[in-house]
Design a protein that fits this description.
By secondary structure, this protein is mostly helical. The chain has 13 helices and 3 strands; from the N terminus they run αβααβααααβαααααα. It has one domain: Rhopdopsin 7-helix transmembrane proteins.
């Protein structure tokens, strides 16, 4: 009899699951109520602000320049990231729709990894754009051309599409049996992989190596670009030129700093998860997909005179 019970338990544990359940703040249900309102407002703000920026750049002929094309790309990436993550989180908060099928889960995983890497790469190209504009202003029109932007966009797309593709593939090839509850609000790679009955060491290694190769190399090049920019600015004798140069790339630097800081905080809290609540890394992961998306167009709209004027002209035409 004991052997029959053991065999039955083993059969139950070996049943292959077909859906996942997102265990989103179930230990702190009050978080769901408190977070749903600010999260939905941030979501609407991100979509509205980025859509406004895209429409303004598209309709205003004066903004058809390389720098603004890069801003358009950044806004497009932010919109996709928000739509990939936030609606599902709000559906869990409001309607308790925690179930997500395999295809949707691994697709979400791929888009999150791919588009975050593309956003980091876009910041890197924008840093190079500012470096050329300030350190080599006379050569800027011949270097940063529409053709350069097309090549940069192809590079951003190709590098990150192919480099991040193994992440969901490695997770999807694993055998999932018995446990199907993801301790997260989203289908993060390691949150999903640890449910598997297989060895996930390859997944961990690729996630670590790929993440530091892509994001790490971008951050190093961004830091190098701004170091050279700062050195060039300090050599300028005219105070007005220094102010203009710092103002030109100030908004860009603020957004990169925020993007990097929230990512660093997420990594540190994930590493020291024994000392913090398990919900903190989950919360930071969600916020990282919506707060930069909401801030990017606002900061550029406020600090970039040409964009501000373009929005004002469109509003006057609409009225």
């Amino acid at each position: 009899m004991w052997q029959n019970m053991t065999a039955h338990q083993n059969d139950t544990l070996s049943i292959e699951v077909s859906d996942f359940l997102l265990n989103c703040f179930v230990r702190s249900t009050s978080w769901q109520h408190w977070l749903s309102l600010p999260l939905s407002l941030l979501f609407l703000l991100a979509l509205g602000a980025n859509a406004t920026l895209l429409i303004t750049i598209w309709l205003e002929a004066s903004l058809h320049e390389p720098m603004y094309y890069l801003l358009s790309l950044l806004s497009l990436l932010d919109i996709v990231l928000c739509l990939t993550v936030i609606p599902k989180v709000l559906a869990i908060f409001w309607f308790d729709l925690r179930t997500i099928n395999f295809t949707a889960c691994f697709l979400q995983m791929y888009i999150m990894n791919c588009f975050l890497a593309m956003e980091s790469c876009t910041f890197m190209v924008m840093a190079y754009d500012r470096y050329i504009a300030i350190c080599h202003p006379l050569r800027y029109p011949s270097i940063i051309t529409d053709k350069f932007i097309v090549k940069a966009a192809i590079f951003i797309l190709a590098r990150n599409v192919f480099m991040t593709m193994p992440i969901p593939i490695l997770s999807a090839r694993l055998y999932y049996c018995g446990k199907n509850v993801i301790e997260n609000c989203i289908c993060a790679n390691m949150s999903v992989s640890r449910l598997s009955c297989d060895n996930v060491i390859i997944n961990r290694l690729y996630q670590f190596a790929g993440g530091w190769t892509l994001l790490g190399s971008d951050l190093i090049l961004i830091f190098l670009s701004y170091t050279l920019i700062l050195r060039a600015v300090m050599r300028l004798k005219a105070e007005s030129a220094v102010t203009k140069a710092l103002s030109t790339c100030g908004s860009h630097f603020i957004l990169i700093l925020f993007f990097s800081t929230i990512l660093l905080v997420f990594v540190l809290t994930h590493v020291t998860k024994k000392k913090v609540s398990p919900d903190v890394p989950v919360l930071l992961n969600i916020l990282h997909h919506v707060i930069p998306a909401a801030l990017n167009p606002i900061v550029y709209g406020v600090r970039t005179q040409e964009i501000k004027q373009g929005i004002q002209r469109l509003l006057k035409k609409g009225l």
